[in-house]
TrEMBL record:
SMART domains (UniProt xref): AAA
The ABC transporter domain, residue ranges: 3-228
GO molecular function terms noted in the UniProt entry: ATP binding; ATP hydrolysis activity
Record has ATP-binding as a keyword: yes
Keywords of the record: ATP-binding, Nucleotide-binding, Transport
Pfam families: ABC_tran
Naturally occurring in which organism (per UniProt): Macrococcus lamae
Top-level division of the source organism's lineage: Bacteria
The keyword ATP-binding belongs to this UniProt entry's keyword annotation: yes
Transmembrane regions listed in the UniProt entry: none
SUPFAM superfamilies xrefs: P-loop containing nucleoside triphosphate hydrolases
Protein name as it appears in the record: ABC transporter ATP-binding protein
PROSITE patterns xref list: ABC_TRANSPORTER_2
Record CDD domains: ABC_DR_subfamily_A (cd03230)
Length: 301
Protein backbone atom coordinates (compact mmCIF):
# COMPACT_ATOMS: atom_id res chain seq x y z
CA UNK A 1 0.00 0.00 0.00
CA UNK A 2 1.56 3.26 -1.13
CA UNK A 3 0.40 6.59 -2.52
CA UNK A 4 2.48 7.72 -5.47
CA UNK A 5 2.29 11.35 -6.55
CA UNK A 6 3.90 11.91 -9.93
CA UNK A 7 4.23 15.39 -11.49
CA UNK A 8 0.84 16.41 -10.05
CA UNK A 9 -0.36 19.91 -10.94
CA UNK A 10 -3.51 21.90 -10.17
CA UNK A 11 -4.47 25.40 -11.31
CA UNK A 12 -7.34 27.74 -10.60
CA UNK A 13 -7.64 30.01 -13.60
CA UNK A 14 -4.16 31.38 -14.24
CA UNK A 15 -3.00 30.63 -10.68
CA UNK A 16 -0.96 27.43 -10.35
CA UNK A 17 -1.56 26.19 -6.78
CA UNK A 18 0.37 22.91 -7.18
CA UNK A 19 3.14 22.58 -9.73
CA UNK A 20 4.61 19.21 -10.80
CA UNK A 21 4.79 17.67 -7.32
CA UNK A 22 6.32 14.21 -6.96
CA UNK A 23 6.17 12.40 -3.59
CA UNK A 24 5.63 8.95 -2.07
CA UNK A 25 3.51 8.35 1.03
CA UNK A 26 4.46 5.04 2.62
CA UNK A 27 2.55 2.88 5.11
CA UNK A 28 3.72 3.10 8.70
CA UNK A 29 5.13 6.61 8.25
CA UNK A 30 4.40 10.19 9.28
CA UNK A 31 5.20 12.72 6.57
CA UNK A 32 5.13 16.43 7.39
CA UNK A 33 4.30 18.95 4.67
CA UNK A 34 5.65 22.36 5.65
CA UNK A 35 5.10 25.72 4.02
CA UNK A 36 3.98 29.26 4.72
CA UNK A 37 0.43 30.40 3.98
CA UNK A 38 -0.37 30.18 0.27
CA UNK A 39 2.34 27.61 -0.44
CA UNK A 40 -0.15 25.09 -1.85
CA UNK A 41 -0.36 22.69 1.09
CA UNK A 42 -4.16 22.59 1.37
CA UNK A 43 -4.61 22.18 -2.39
CA UNK A 44 -2.19 19.24 -2.38
CA UNK A 45 -4.11 17.69 0.54
CA UNK A 46 -7.39 18.10 -1.34
CA UNK A 47 -5.82 16.40 -4.35
CA UNK A 48 -4.78 13.55 -2.05
CA UNK A 49 -8.29 13.44 -0.58
CA UNK A 50 -9.66 13.16 -4.15
CA UNK A 51 -11.74 16.30 -3.61
CA UNK A 52 -9.91 17.81 -6.61
CA UNK A 53 -8.60 15.96 -9.63
CA UNK A 54 -5.19 16.81 -11.03
CA UNK A 55 -4.98 18.93 -14.18
CA UNK A 56 -1.89 16.94 -15.14
CA UNK A 57 0.20 14.24 -13.56
CA UNK A 58 -1.20 11.33 -11.53
CA UNK A 59 -1.85 10.24 -7.96
CA UNK A 60 -2.06 6.47 -7.55
CA UNK A 61 -2.99 4.23 -4.62
CA UNK A 62 -1.97 0.60 -5.06
CA UNK A 63 -1.36 1.35 -8.72
CA UNK A 64 -4.79 2.89 -9.43
CA UNK A 65 -5.91 6.50 -9.70
CA UNK A 66 -7.41 7.79 -6.43
CA UNK A 67 -9.99 10.05 -8.09
CA UNK A 68 -13.50 8.55 -7.84
CA UNK A 69 -11.90 5.43 -6.38
CA UNK A 70 -14.39 4.10 -3.81
CA UNK A 71 -11.93 1.60 -2.33
CA UNK A 72 -9.44 4.42 -1.67
CA UNK A 73 -12.10 6.66 -0.11
CA UNK A 74 -13.19 3.88 2.24
CA UNK A 75 -9.62 3.62 3.57
CA UNK A 76 -8.76 7.34 3.73
CA UNK A 77 -9.75 10.08 6.21
CA UNK A 78 -9.19 13.80 5.65
CA UNK A 79 -9.42 16.25 8.56
CA UNK A 80 -9.58 19.75 7.08
CA UNK A 81 -8.29 22.85 8.87
CA UNK A 82 -11.94 23.58 9.72
CA UNK A 83 -13.54 20.17 10.48
CA UNK A 84 -16.94 19.59 8.86
CA UNK A 85 -19.97 18.10 10.60
CA UNK A 86 -23.63 17.82 9.63
CA UNK A 87 -25.92 20.51 11.03
CA UNK A 88 -27.61 20.02 14.39
CA UNK A 89 -26.07 16.63 15.12
CA UNK A 90 -24.18 15.26 18.09
CA UNK A 91 -21.01 13.20 18.02
CA UNK A 92 -22.81 9.88 18.42
CA UNK A 93 -25.00 10.62 15.38
CA UNK A 94 -21.87 11.45 13.38
CA UNK A 95 -20.37 8.15 14.55
CA UNK A 96 -23.40 6.30 13.15
CA UNK A 97 -22.81 7.92 9.76
CA UNK A 98 -19.07 7.09 9.88
CA UNK A 99 -19.86 3.47 10.82
CA UNK A 100 -21.96 3.11 7.66
CA UNK A 101 -19.29 4.80 5.51
CA UNK A 102 -16.07 3.22 6.79
CA UNK A 103 -16.02 -0.60 7.05
CA UNK A 104 -13.33 -0.60 9.76
CA UNK A 105 -15.11 1.87 12.08
CA UNK A 106 -14.97 0.68 15.70
CA UNK A 107 -17.68 1.74 18.17
CA UNK A 108 -15.56 0.28 20.95
CA UNK A 109 -12.76 2.63 19.99
CA UNK A 110 -15.20 5.51 19.69
CA UNK A 111 -16.48 4.96 23.25
CA UNK A 112 -12.94 4.65 24.60
CA UNK A 113 -11.84 7.90 22.93
CA UNK A 114 -14.88 9.93 24.07
CA UNK A 115 -14.19 8.78 27.62
CA UNK A 116 -10.44 9.44 27.36
CA UNK A 117 -10.94 12.97 25.99
CA UNK A 118 -13.95 13.64 28.24
CA UNK A 119 -16.31 14.52 25.37
CA UNK A 120 -20.05 14.04 25.86
CA UNK A 121 -21.19 12.35 22.60
CA UNK A 122 -24.80 13.49 23.09
CA UNK A 123 -24.09 17.24 23.08
CA UNK A 124 -24.70 19.02 19.77
CA UNK A 125 -21.39 19.69 18.10
CA UNK A 126 -22.37 23.29 17.21
CA UNK A 127 -22.37 24.08 20.95
CA UNK A 128 -18.76 22.94 21.41
CA UNK A 129 -15.63 25.12 21.34
CA UNK A 130 -13.20 25.15 18.41
CA UNK A 131 -10.78 22.88 20.27
CA UNK A 132 -13.51 20.40 21.23
CA UNK A 133 -14.79 20.29 17.65
CA UNK A 134 -11.29 19.35 16.53
CA UNK A 135 -11.21 16.64 19.19
CA UNK A 136 -14.50 15.32 17.79
CA UNK A 137 -12.94 15.17 14.32
CA UNK A 138 -10.01 13.17 15.69
CA UNK A 139 -12.30 10.80 17.62
CA UNK A 140 -14.23 10.01 14.44
CA UNK A 141 -11.10 9.70 12.30
CA UNK A 142 -9.19 7.46 14.71
CA UNK A 143 -12.28 5.30 15.33
CA UNK A 144 -12.56 4.71 11.57
CA UNK A 145 -9.12 3.03 11.62
CA UNK A 146 -8.15 4.31 8.16
CA UNK A 147 -5.07 3.19 6.27
CA UNK A 148 -4.38 6.79 5.20
CA UNK A 149 -4.99 9.87 7.33
CA UNK A 150 -4.61 13.35 5.82
CA UNK A 151 -4.41 16.19 8.35
CA UNK A 152 -4.46 19.92 7.58
CA UNK A 153 -3.05 22.03 10.45
CA UNK A 154 -4.42 19.34 12.80
CA UNK A 155 -3.29 20.57 16.21
CA UNK A 156 -4.45 24.21 16.03
CA UNK A 157 -6.79 25.02 18.90
CA UNK A 158 -5.84 22.00 21.04
CA UNK A 159 -4.43 22.52 24.51
CA UNK A 160 -0.99 20.96 25.18
CA UNK A 161 -2.30 17.94 27.13
CA UNK A 162 -4.88 16.99 24.48
CA UNK A 163 -2.33 17.60 21.71
CA UNK A 164 0.12 15.25 23.40
CA UNK A 165 -2.57 12.59 23.93
CA UNK A 166 -3.74 12.66 20.31
CA UNK A 167 -0.18 12.59 18.96
CA UNK A 168 0.55 9.50 21.06
CA UNK A 169 -2.57 7.72 19.75
CA UNK A 170 -1.64 8.56 16.16
CA UNK A 171 1.94 7.35 16.64
CA UNK A 172 0.63 4.08 18.12
CA UNK A 173 -1.63 3.55 15.08
CA UNK A 174 1.26 4.20 12.72
CA UNK A 175 3.34 1.64 14.59
CA UNK A 176 0.66 -1.00 15.26
CA UNK A 177 -1.49 -0.76 12.13
CA UNK A 178 0.93 0.74 9.57
CA UNK A 179 -1.28 3.79 9.12
CA UNK A 180 0.15 6.39 6.74
CA UNK A 181 -0.10 9.95 8.08
CA UNK A 182 0.34 12.99 5.84
CA UNK A 183 0.29 16.16 7.93
CA UNK A 184 0.47 19.78 6.76
CA UNK A 185 1.67 22.57 9.02
CA UNK A 186 3.44 25.92 8.99
CA UNK A 187 4.97 25.10 12.39
CA UNK A 188 8.37 23.45 12.05
CA UNK A 189 8.80 22.94 15.79
CA UNK A 190 5.47 21.11 15.96
CA UNK A 191 6.56 18.65 13.29
CA UNK A 192 10.18 18.02 14.26
CA UNK A 193 9.44 15.48 17.00
CA UNK A 194 6.40 13.98 15.25
CA UNK A 195 7.39 13.19 11.66
CA UNK A 196 9.64 10.59 10.02
CA UNK A 197 10.09 12.66 6.87
CA UNK A 198 9.53 16.26 5.80
CA UNK A 199 8.72 18.15 2.62
CA UNK A 200 8.79 21.91 2.11
CA UNK A 201 6.40 23.60 -0.32
CA UNK A 202 6.82 27.08 -1.73
CA UNK A 203 4.69 28.64 -4.47
CA UNK A 204 3.18 25.28 -5.37
CA UNK A 205 6.46 23.40 -5.67
CA UNK A 206 8.15 20.91 -3.35
CA UNK A 207 11.61 22.32 -2.74
CA UNK A 208 12.89 19.52 -0.56
CA UNK A 209 11.68 16.07 0.53
CA UNK A 210 13.89 14.07 2.89
CA UNK A 211 13.86 11.58 5.74
CA UNK A 212 14.53 13.45 8.99
CA UNK A 213 17.28 11.04 10.06
CA UNK A 214 19.05 11.57 6.74
CA UNK A 215 18.77 15.33 7.05
CA UNK A 216 20.16 15.39 10.56
CA UNK A 217 23.01 12.98 9.83
CA UNK A 218 24.09 14.81 6.67
CA UNK A 219 24.97 18.23 8.12
CA UNK A 220 26.85 19.30 11.25
CA UNK A 221 28.49 22.34 12.83
CA UNK A 222 32.25 22.39 13.50
CA UNK A 223 33.64 24.78 16.09
CA UNK A 224 37.44 24.95 16.21
CA UNK A 225 39.93 27.14 18.07
CA UNK A 226 43.50 27.49 16.78
CA UNK A 227 46.72 29.03 18.02
CA UNK A 228 47.28 30.02 14.40
CA UNK A 229 44.53 29.87 11.80
CA UNK A 230 45.06 27.08 9.22
CA UNK A 231 45.64 27.77 5.55
CA UNK A 232 42.67 27.80 3.18
CA UNK A 233 43.79 24.42 1.83
CA UNK A 234 42.68 22.90 5.16
CA UNK A 235 39.05 23.77 4.44
CA UNK A 236 39.13 22.03 1.06
CA UNK A 237 38.86 18.77 3.00
CA UNK A 238 35.25 19.63 3.89
CA UNK A 239 32.08 20.36 1.95
CA UNK A 240 31.49 23.72 3.65
CA UNK A 241 28.13 25.45 3.38
CA UNK A 242 29.17 28.40 5.54
CA UNK A 243 32.31 29.53 7.40
CA UNK A 244 32.71 32.25 10.04
CA UNK A 245 35.90 33.40 11.75
CA UNK A 246 35.99 35.34 15.02
CA UNK A 247 39.56 35.87 16.04
CA UNK A 248 41.09 32.41 16.17
CA UNK A 249 37.75 30.60 16.51
CA UNK A 250 36.32 29.11 13.31
CA UNK A 251 32.74 27.87 12.92
CA UNK A 252 31.83 25.84 9.84
CA UNK A 253 28.60 24.29 8.64
CA UNK A 254 29.62 21.09 6.88
CA UNK A 255 27.73 18.58 4.75
CA UNK A 256 28.87 15.12 3.82
CA UNK A 257 30.51 11.96 5.15
CA UNK A 258 31.81 12.44 8.69
CA UNK A 259 33.65 9.12 9.09
CA UNK A 260 37.14 10.68 9.03
CA UNK A 261 36.25 14.18 10.11
CA UNK A 262 38.03 14.07 13.49
CA UNK A 263 41.21 12.77 11.91
CA UNK A 264 41.12 15.65 9.41
CA UNK A 265 40.53 18.25 12.14
CA UNK A 266 43.25 16.97 14.51
CA UNK A 267 45.79 17.05 11.67
CA UNK A 268 45.55 20.86 11.87
CA UNK A 269 46.38 20.78 15.61
CA UNK A 270 43.47 22.83 16.99
CA UNK A 271 43.56 23.97 20.62
CA UNK A 272 40.06 22.54 20.90
CA UNK A 273 37.20 21.51 18.66
CA UNK A 274 33.61 20.34 18.86
CA UNK A 275 31.26 18.62 16.40
CA UNK A 276 27.67 19.70 17.03
CA UNK A 277 24.33 18.63 15.54
CA UNK A 278 22.14 21.27 13.89
CA UNK A 279 18.53 21.95 14.74
CA UNK A 280 16.02 21.28 11.98
CA UNK A 281 15.55 25.04 11.59
CA UNK A 282 19.27 25.50 10.95
CA UNK A 283 19.38 22.58 8.51
CA UNK A 284 16.52 23.98 6.43
CA UNK A 285 18.09 27.44 6.47
CA UNK A 286 21.33 26.10 5.00
CA UNK A 287 19.71 23.58 2.63
CA UNK A 288 17.30 26.18 1.21
CA UNK A 289 19.26 29.38 1.59
CA UNK A 290 17.92 30.75 -1.69
CA UNK A 291 14.36 30.57 -0.37
CA UNK A 292 14.96 32.55 2.81
CA UNK A 293 11.50 34.15 2.92
CA UNK A 294 9.72 30.79 2.77
CA UNK A 295 11.91 29.28 5.49
CA UNK A 296 11.62 32.36 7.70
CA UNK A 297 7.83 32.15 7.57
CA UNK A 298 7.80 28.44 8.42
CA UNK A 299 10.09 28.97 11.41
CA UNK A 300 8.51 32.14 12.76
CA UNK A 301 4.80 31.31 12.52
Amino acid sequence: MMIEIRQASKSFGTYKAVNKVTLDIKPGSIHGLLGSNGAGKTTLLKLLAAIYNTDSGVIHYNGKSIFENLNYKSEMIFIADIPYFFKNVNLKEMATFYKETFPSFSMKRFNQLTELLNINPLVRITKLSKGMKRQCAFILAISARPKIMLLDEPFDGLDPIVRHTIKNILIQDVSNYQTALFVSSHNLREMEDFCDSISIMHKGEVLLARELDDLKSDVCKLQMAFKELPLETFYKNFNILEKNEKGRVVTCIVRGNFDNIEQTITAAHPLMYDILPLSLEEIFTYELGGYGYAIENIIVE
